[in-house]
Structure formats: structure tokens, C-alpha cells
Please model this.
Amino acid sequence: MDKLTIFVALTGIAVALQAGVLLAMFIVMRSTSSKLEALAAEMRTKVLPVVDQTQTILTDVRPKIERVAEDVREATNTIRGQIERTDAAINDVVDRARLQVIRADELLTRTMDRVEQASDTVHRTVMSPMRQLSGLMQGITVGLEFLFSRRGPQNGNRRGESRPVPQDEMFI
Model:
């Protein structure tokens, strides 16, 4: 056999082998296609009605959901407005309370200053003259005691010697 015959025989075998592979692929594809068609038919009978029902339910429920969302939006806006008004009122009350505390502090400070001034005035006008008067009275008392103690016979000192009077030390 020559080489050309061997080559043609091998080529024929290769073409036959390719045809067999293609035939096997065709058979496998046909069985897979029939399985896919059965699966598609099952989907049409089972899943598509559920999808249609879901779409119908969503179509019925959608306006209700939109209404609920609108109500929530309105409630949120109303609450936001109330909070802003409440915040403004609270800030006003806090500002007024702060002002009243400042006024009360100033009033208390002025009152304490006036009490201190009154105390100083009482001290200058009453206490200081009272001390001076007390000192004057003590001086007069000591002077009178000194004078009366020299003249009388009860002191026992006839030569005119002076005896120290205990209050002399306190006399200023």
C-alpha cells in the first residue's frame, strides 16, 4: 500500500469518527432540548400563574402602600414642625430663666452691698461714738475716784502720797 491510500483511509476514518461525534452530540442535544422544553412547560404552568398573581396583588396593594408612605411623610413633616416650635419655646424659656437668674443675682448683690454699707454706717455712727462715750465715762470715773481717794481719811495716806489706783492702767 502506498502512502496515499493510507492517508485516504486515515482521513476517511477521521471523517467517520467526526460524523459519529456529531451524531452523538445531536442525540445529546435533542434529549437536552426535550428536557428543557418540559421544564419550560412546567414553568409556564406553575411559575407564571404565581407571577401573574403577584403582579395582580402588587397592582392592588400599590395604591395602599403609596397612601401609607404619603401618610408617613405627612406625619414626619407635622412632627418636625412641632419639634421646631417646641425647640423655639424651650429656647425662649431658657433665655427668660437666664435673664431672671441674672436679675436675681444683681438684686442679691445690690442688697448685700447695701447691708454692708448699712453695717458700716451703723458702726461709724453708733458704735464709734459709743466707744468714745464709754472711754470718756471711764476717764471721768477714774478721775473722780482719784480725786475722792486723795481727800478722804479712809485712804490712810495723810502726807499726800498717791497710791496707784487699779483703774489707772486701763485709762487711756
